[in-house]
Amino acid sequence: MKSFSKYQVFIAFIFTVLIFVSCDKNKLYEFSYPTSEAHFVGAKNQSLQVLSATQAPQKIEFGTTDVATTDRLITYKLTSPTGAVAGTHYNIIGGSGGSITMPAGQSITSISVQGIFAAYNATGRKDTLVFTIAEPSLKSSTFSDTVKLALRGTCFEGDIVLTELLGNYANTRETFGTSPYGPYLTKITAATSTGLKTARITVTNIWDNGWGPLQFDLDWNDPANTMATVVPQAAIAGSNAGDLSATYAGQTIAVRAPSAALAVTPPTYSYCLGKFTLKMQLGVTGVGFFGTLYTVNMAR
Questions:
Q1: Which of 47, 60, 235, 298 could form a disulfide with 276 if both were Cys (CB 3.0 to 4.6 A apart)?
Q2: Is the Cα torsion angle 80, 86, 88, 92 positive or negative in sign?
Q3: Rg value, the chain, Cα
Q4: Cα–Cα distance measured from residue 270 to residue 127, given in angstroms and rounded to the nearest whole number
Q5: How far apart are CA 193 and CA 200, in angstroms?
Q6: Residues 230-256 pLDDT 10s
């Protein structure tokens, strides 16, 4: 254990005394008050799915860094990079002409965005509204001066946002032949466009026993008949064909799309429901394929 010398104790005592005598409670000191600034409250990226003509509007909340005894005006700018038009695609409720009043004694107020159902019903249209604090009015803060609101209607299978496919599918179930297994967790880790209405996804943890990732080609040229076809692999990393038959223990597993001899319905998926029905044929690397269907049903 460290020990302190008498000299060190003396120095500490003197320092403490100086602290106490240097502050005069009768002396007036200057205080720094925060400036009055306006900012948005809540997430920077928000969304509104317009599903009916009577749907509740979406609030966009404004805040201030202080509370005042008088009403104050907050000015904002509204733009749409996708071309959404007020009165055609949305209406703003509250405020007036790009401004809103922060009432005296309050630090939060709001406007609301009402999506117009006819503009989004079964059209697949998507818009973005960008709200930005503007001047003259209260000064804009630097920490939350912009909100983006995504507007869309009923989900449309033919209008895919690839990034929305990413993430966990915790309710994955599979069947190899007549043997079911699950639920377990799979994950889509990548989704890359390969054409106007095609893409390739990467899925991890299929088989739930150490397999490396598998890839699948998505096709939504016909939104009513989407396709999800496995990309063939001659040897799946981390696989053990002994899981299929003890005869091939230690060898790797191969995968391909089901042969015509299996006469299965095509593998498909639903972007709107977040579900995939993946169908494959498994085999042993360099040996051949089993005449058994392997189906993986992925769901959020």
A1: 298
A2: positive
A3: 31
A4: 22
A5: 6
A6: 999 999 999 999 999 999 999 999 999
In this structure, the dihedral spanned by the alpha carbons of residues 244, 250, 256 and 259, taken in order and rounded to 10 degrees, is -50
With the C-alpha atoms ordered 205, 209, 214, 216, is the resulting torsion angle positive or negative? negative
Q: Which residues pair with 92 in a beta bridge?
A: 113
Q: What is the pLDDT of residues 214-226, one digit of tens each?
A: 999 999 999 999 9
Asked if residues 162 and 191 have their Cβ atoms less than 8 Å apart, the reply is yes
Residue pair 214/245 in contact (Cβ under 8 Å)? The answer is no
Query: pTM of this prediction?
Result: 0.59
Distances (CA, A) of 48 to 96, 123, 149: 22, 15, 7
Distance CA 93, CA 253 (A): 60
Question: What does DSSP say about strands 126-134 and 99-102: parallel, antiparallel, or unpaired?
Answer: unpaired
Output the six-digit token pair for 250: 């230690």
